[in-house]
Amino acid sequence: MKRTRYVSAATAVVLMTGGPVAAATAAAADPARTVTAAPAAVPAATTAESAAAAALKHYPGVIESLDEDGSVWHVDVISKDGKGHAELEVSASGSVTEQNRDTDGNAAENKALVSAKVTAQQAMKAALAAHPGQVTTVEWDDDDGTASWHVEVRGKDGKTWDAQVNPTTGKVTQSGSDSDDDGDDNN
To answer: What phi and psi values does residue 52 have, to the nearest 5 degrees?
Structure first.
């Protein structure tokens, strides 16, 4: 009983003089007592570029797609050998959560992506040079037999710009805007 009073009194003194950091230390000294520290400042929203860097740090390889979903980025990364694949989520704070990983993929299916001269990050830079704003989506597209990067940029005017970036030269080969920003790709 006396120990509890001394710990409680000591905790009160520490809280008055040391603030949240001291509170956490005091809570560690007395595990039966829980102290909630002041919430940390909310970090600025993560950009496509920083989400890509965080994803590649977590799972080295080549980005196949990156898509903004509110404050979370969904990133698909293919391993450099083309056999591995990871589905990642990058939060606004930059923390990475692995949603799925496999290592038995068909390397032949990913050969064009893995060997492309222009990466997703370089495609983003090219699209931003053509249309300043913020990248919201980057996607490797080789469905019709002609590979390209599809990059969506939200301009400062609120319009979404769709750009196709050549994976060999890095040039923006086609672009258009969706002025009503409804996600419809009929340009």
So the answer is: -65, -45
